């Protein structure tokens, strides 16, 4: 199949690498100079409709829309997840008959639950913060096409995404009173999940939403103490204050990956222990 990845950054390029042997890839981003030649790189800006004109006549079966907001501001989230989606969908209007699926990289930030409950693809989504609201708007735009699939990733970690490891290494632990249930997924499993869904499309249709998180929801305390032990450090949270403001964190909940698991996906790193141990060993 012809797979086009719009916003081909870290996750997108990892996904493209997994797909390249069996599919024709087109990787698009604002500056495509650093993309490999085999990815058929294209430079475009989702905020500039004129730069998306090539999509009207582009041979494409599957689009993966994988944008990240430039900053934690409402206008940047609106650009990445709302107006950017609208511009790409307009550019693809002439390709609607050929296009099989529009896969939208979403976030568990669309959930509002903060009581430790289990959430899945059918759980209520009533985010109070602008970031979750804008991502949810993007999901609705994609679903309205009739060929949209949203993949809600939980907290992504991995090479280049070392925020928690760096914080623990600096001795800044979350005070026990502020510990909450958190959910994670290794970046390699993010790419693997997207590639898995593309592969499924060769045999059958896929659902309109998947929650992509590993098997081990865990408290901040559990994760930090494990990382500290792997780093050979003493875990001493009393009296410390985290250096991160926590603005991006959206509540205490347990994300269920049952639907993704049922589709046949196997995690490379099914728990935060497996993922962080491998990451620390390779640093």
Task: Give me some keywords for this one.
283 residues, alpha/beta, Rossmann fold, seven-stranded parallel beta sheet, 13 strands
What does this structure look like?
The chain is an alpha/beta fold and 283 residues long. It has helices at 10-19, 74-91, 130-143, 163-169, 187-200, 220-231, 258-262, 272-282, and strands spanning 2-6, 24-29, 42-43, 62-65, 101-107, 118-119, 148-153, 155-157, 181-182, 184-186, 209-212, 218-219, 254-255. It has a single domain, classed as Rossmann fold, CATH 3.40.50. The protein has a 7-stranded parallel β-sheet with strand order 3-2-1-4-5-7-11, sandwiched between helices. Helix 2 (74-91) links the parallel strand 4 (62-65) and strand 5 (101-107). It is globular, with a radius of gyration of 19 Å.
Low-confidence stretches: 242-248
Just name the CATH architecture. 3-Layer(aba) Sandwich
The average pLDDT is 94
Strand content: 15-25%
Gross morphology: globular
Order of helices and strands: EHEEEHEEHEEHEEHEEHEHH
């Amino acid at each position: 199949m012809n797979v086009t990845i719009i916003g081909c950054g870290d996750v997108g390029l990892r996904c493209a690498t997994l797909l390249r042997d069996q599919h024709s890839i087109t990787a698009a981003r604002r500056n495509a100079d650093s993309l490999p030649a085999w990815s058929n790189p294209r430079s475009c800006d989702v905020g500039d409709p004129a730069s998306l004109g090539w999509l009207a006549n582009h041979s494409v079966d599957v689009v993966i829309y994988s944008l990240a907001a430039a900053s934690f501001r409402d206008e940047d989230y609106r650009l990445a997840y709302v107006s950017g989606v609208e511009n790409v969908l307009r550019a693809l209007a002439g390709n609607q008959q050929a296009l099989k699926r529009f896969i939208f990289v979403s976030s568990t930030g669309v959930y509002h639950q903060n009581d430790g409950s289990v959430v899945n693809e059918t759980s209520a989504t009533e985010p109070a913060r602008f970031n979750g609201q804008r991502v949810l708007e993007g999901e609705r735009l994609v679903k309205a096409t009739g060929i949209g699939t949203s993949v809600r990733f939980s907290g992504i970690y991995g090479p280049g995404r070392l925020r928690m490891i760096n914080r623990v290494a600096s001795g800044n632990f979350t005070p026990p009173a502020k510990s909450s249930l958190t959910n994670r997924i290794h970046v390699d499993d993010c790419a693997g999940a997207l590639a898995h869904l593309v592969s499924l499309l060769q045999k059958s249709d896929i659902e309109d939403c998947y929650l992509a998180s590993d098997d081990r929801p865990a408290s901040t305390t559990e994760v930090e103490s494990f990382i500290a032990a792997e780093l050979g450090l003493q875990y001493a949270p009393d009296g410390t204050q985290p250096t991160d403001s926590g603005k991006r964190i959206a509540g205490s909940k347990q994300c269920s990956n049952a639907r993704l698991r049922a589709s046949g996906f196997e995690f490379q790193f099914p728990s935060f222990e497996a993922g962080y141990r491998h990451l620390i060993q390779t640093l």
